[in-house]
Amino acid sequence: MKNLNxxxxxxxxxxxxxGSCIExxxxxxxxxxxxxxxxxxxxxxxxxxxVTDPSQIDIPQPESTNSLQYxxxxxxxxxxxxxxxxxxxxxxxxxxxxxxxxxNEIALELAAKYNLIPGPNADGTYTLPNPANPVGxxxxxxxxxxxxxxxxxxxxxxxxxxxxxTWHYKFQFNRPAPYLTDNTxxxxxxxxxxxxxxxxxxxxxxxxxxxLKLMFPLEANYLEDKYQEHIESLVHAGINVQSDIDAxxxxxxxxxxxxxxxxxxxxxxxxQTPKNVSDSIANAAFERFGWKWENMETPxxxxxxxxxFGQVKMWNVPSVEEVRPGPPPAxxxxxxxxxxxxxxxxxxxxxxxxxxxxxxxxxxxxSYTPPGHWNKFAKEAIVKAKLNPLxxxxxxxxxxxxIMDAGVACWDAKYYYHYPRPIETISGFKTILGTPxxxxxxxGHSTFSAAGAEVLAHFFxxxxxxxxxWAEEAAVSRLYGGIHYRFDADVGISQGKNVGAYAVNRAKxxxxx
Length: 513
Description:
There is one protein chain. By secondary structure, the chain is an all-alpha fold. Helix content is 57%, strand content 0%. Helix 1 (2-20) runs parallel beside helix 12 (352-360), helix 5 (145-173) packs antiparallel against helix 7 (200-215) and helix 5 runs antiparallel to helix 14 (389-417). The longest helix is centred in the first third of the chain and has 29 residues, at 145-173. The chain starts with a helix and ends in a 5-residue tail after the last helix.
């Protein structure tokens, strides 16, 4: 009986250990406003991505701090600060002096909320989410990894470009913060010599709200509420008067026009193809290589996930063919059989550590997807380094454009080679994770992660080894889960590194080094 009790205890510990290793979807990092490591006074001269030149966006010259208009704004600010409610005080604490991070968290929260694959209708057919009818059913969007990577890229690029323009005017006009003009004003955050006109917080709030409304149309009211809360917090924190905010809104509104223009013609609208196009892609692969991936769902979904995402416009790579890898080993070949034997061994003798890794990196339905993991890592590194909002947005912009480009490159390879999944090529094979609804080669986790790791390694070299180790772990997790072969993962890592190098090279030449 004693041995039996020990066995039950051991089994319970195993189950608790395995279960506790499933990654939660954190959307809020506990940190307070901090003293920026550097103000980057020359930040207004950095090269932008959408904006041709900061001077193409015009804002009014601010009133001087001794003018009647500005003094009236100071009086209004002090009056508002004197009677804050507990909710307003909490909002000031929440938004901090680096709201780039909070809007990124909101984006990840929405990605997880909408990462729900549409199920079959009663008759076994499928209906796709439709941006023209976002209520559905099914609701739009389905925030799968390609969709989420694109959403984060546009969000981060809009934030970065808008903040470069904001910095350009901050140091052109050099209007000090309200608390430096009136020492009776006590700011909620660390005192800073960063000029307050135009408001960087308002700029970020405007572009973030508008990009996320575009990507998540059903969340318009929620996003408007967050925007209003953020804007009010700028005054309540004592860091901006209303004219600072108005100028920031102008900049944000102009940058949004450029972002929407690019998004409307980048090819994403055609990524999810009709069945005849999907079939022609599969048949072309079969003619080239003698194999093609088949959907194993019941009822069978007629088209895999976004067959033409590989043709969406990239940010840093001139053409997707430049980063397309060579072909995978043919099913039945010696190299294939070696790889098949490896994942069959993992499936038959799964360790607690391997199961933990597979679960932690699953990033499946209801999660913020693999790109979300890397935004979490970036956020933590930014706070640790005490980067200002402009520097923070720069990190996110290069990382998220690299991650999206990696997704485009990966999906190009997936549908060009149309390689079958292990459950198709290994008789009776069972996985511990759900098999995704698209071809295997190359691994999306591997390409997304390697690209993200390369960019973060560039910006935070002291932690480069850790970022690259996480990318390798993300890649091998898919072997443990039984949904990829090692060649899917290894080639995906190489592909992601290659894509990430384009973003790093661009960052090295943007004037911010």
